[in-house]
Amino acid sequence: MTTHYQTRYAASPQDVKNYDTNRLRDEFLISNVMEDDAINLVYSHYDRFITGGVVPVKNELKLESIDPLKANYFLERRELGIINVGGKGTVSVNGIDYQLDYKEALYIGRENKDVIFSSEDATKPAKFYLNSTPAHKTFPTKKIGREDAEVVELGALETANARTIRKLIVNSVVETCQVQMGMTELKTGSVWNTMPAHVHDRRMEVYFYFEVPEDQAVCHFMGEPEETRHIWMANNQAVISPPWSIHSGSGTSNYIFIWGMAGENLDYGDMDHCNINELK
Q1: Are 100 and 106 in contact (CB under 8 A)?
Q2: 45 annotated as ligand-binding
Q3: Which residues does 279 contact at the CB level (< 8 Å), separation at least 6?
Q4: Which residues have a Cβ under 8 Å from the Cβ of 268 and sit 6 or more positions away?
Q5: I need a surface site. Which of 67, 173, 186, 194 has the fewest CB within 10 A?
Q6: Which residues pair with 177 in a beta bridge?
Q7: Block means of pLDDT (10 residues each) for the chain, length 280 residues?
């Protein structure tokens, strides 16, 4: 069996206040995203968001439905966003091939039955990072190259948060029902992401950290602004962020992360900011 999945349930912020380190990690950390010749998925009850990784090495891998979907095929009632964080690879959608290089993205609309992943070079396999959400309408499949992204520069070296945001799968670049994805790259000498922090009660979010050096780590901060918690994370790990939670991080070196969102609206700027000196 090449497809493995877990189910994660939603948690009240009042309950999370009582979690110890292990419980916090069990509920929100997705530690095993990328595995050779396997598809790993986590089905979250926050907005029915699915996070996953696909690493085809020796074999092609087909995206199959999982039991929580109660569907004949994975995208029967869903849409899918993909970003490649490995070597060159191909995603075949109903027989049409889309080649994805490093940091390139693909949006696949609802009702596409056959989605197959492959790598160009088994010694440098593609690593496809997936986000999937329920969809009410079918939009066309579209590849988004790095040159197609909306680019925003934020932060400053003086505050250790100079970063480049690339909006890849957002409604100003490609039509979607609710899934949104993009990439934030910290510049050399900067370590803080999403600082000042914010929450958005209309949407949940998942962060996937990559390009974290082997001997380094990222401390991801979550929780209500007045009572935060933290999770230490390694390379190629993801973390679920509930709508009531901040989602921020600081690394022991610079790194890159992919943000994925789903929820009530597609307004990227819909957020409630938290003053840094009010965080607790």
Answers
A1: yes
A2: no
A3: 197, 225, 226, 228, 246
A4: 167, 170, 180
A5: 67
A6: none
A7: 93 95 98 97 98 97 97 98 98 98 98 98 97 98 96 95 97 96 96 92 95 96 96 98 96 97 86 89
Residue 249, both tokens: 């991080």
Question: Domain coordinates of the chain in residue numbers?
Answer: 3-278
Tokens standing for residue 181:
């994805």
The answer to whether the CB of 151 falls within 8 A of the CB of 164 is: yes
Q: Are 184 and 243 in contact (CB under 8 A)?
A: no
Is 198 within any annotated ligand binding site? yes
**Residue 48 — left, alpha, or beta (φ > 0 → left; ψ -120 to 50 → alpha)?**
left
Q: CA–CA separation, 36 vs 54, rounded Å?
A: 8
Say which CATH superfamily domain 3-278 falls into. Jelly Rolls (2.60.120.10)
Report the amino acid identity of residue 233.
M
CA distance 245 to 55: 30
